């Protein structure tokens, strides 16, 4: 099992892309793996023939566990352990083995050492936590979400439990691991941050003219305006710590990418504040392509300091995105459409013209700063988009 990020300790094989006996070239996609942070496709590090699969689809094993056997020829003898033997060998020693939690009807869940420590630190009983991992396993994010929800309940009263009723004509579609992880993260964010929304309208006339010549979408222009506006309003590029605001010197820009309506990932463009328009556009395109091809690693998804989500292609009017913790703000680019606009004429009077207009929506954490600061930042982004000479941008 490869190391898919500094904080990743295990992975789940979701699909083998080669069968036993297949010839495998170096860098051929070999299997898909899912972790708490990323679903990705892993290429083969060697060429040869796939002779044995040691970890079956659906099994979760620690980093470093042997997964398969490749040989240089198709018929050389091998002595490979069975999947059951690999599972037994990859189990932690008894001194480190996670405690068992008895569940109704004889079910049982296991807690990793990290999850056990987090539960103890937050004085949580495992029965209070809804597991989003495989077979209901409790993950780190599940514990953090439960702790945040408990704080919210303590301050505002616990909401009554509502259970859905499945009718005879209803279809039941189980949540995927990616959907469960997204749900846990979003609930944790809503329970943690003081979400507030501010929206402004942008006249994209200058951007639209330039982007058509350059062959670009609106997104890289918005990204360039955002990183430039952050220089004047650095507090939006920050995280909330323990009774403090941690302001980040570099802008690591998260770009939300939809994966065929089945999952949402946010790969990170590092040091975006140092990039001009074309490198920003190329970086965003490359990240989106790698995300859709399942070629991201956990490190590609870590460390964002500000996020942009782009749903405007669906013609949205106003979007209130949920902040990606521990960031303090997220910007949504809403739909751009040709609409009547009031414009100054040559003689200084007002007239009506048809311009490309669209909204920018900023969700921010009111713990970090107030509405005036957020509105000033958003106005800065708007003014840069409307007044900059984008025809000269590179």
The low-confidence runs, each spanning 5 or more residues with pLDDT under 50, are 94-98, 100-108
Shape: globular
Mean pLDDT: 86
Give the biggest sheet.
6 strands, mixed
Q: Portion of residues in helices? A: 25-40%
Radius of gyration: 25 Å
Supply the number of helical segments: 8
Distance from N terminus to C terminus (CA atoms, Å) equals 42 Å
Strand content: 25-35%
Number of strands: 19
Enumerate the strands of the largest sheet in spatial order, edge to edge or round the barrel: 10-19-18-17-13-16
Class inferred from helices and paired strands: alpha+beta
Topology order in helix (H) and strand (E) letters: EEEEEEEHEEHHHEHHEEEEEEHEEEH
What does this structure look like?
The chain is globular and about 90 Å long. Strand 3 (29-34) and strand 4 (39-43) form a beta hairpin. Helix 3 (140-156) runs parallel beside helix 4 and helix 6 crosses helix 7. With 394 residues, the protein is of the alpha+beta class. Helices cover 27% and strands 26% of the residues. It has helices at 83-90, 113-121, 140-156, 177-192, 205-214, 219-232, 277-292, 371-387; strands at 10-16, 23-24, 29-34, 39-43, 48-53, 60-62, 68-71, 100-102, 108-110, 195-203, 238-240, 245-247, 253-255, 257-259, 263-265, 268-269, 306-310, 329-344, 350-365. It has a 6-stranded mixed β-sheet. A 4-stranded antiparallel β-sheet has the order 4-3-1-6, with no helix packed on it. Strands 2-5-7 form a 3-stranded antiparallel β-sheet, with no helix packed on it. The protein has 8 helices and 19 strands. The protein starts with 9 loop residues before the first strand and ends in a 7-residue tail after the last helix.
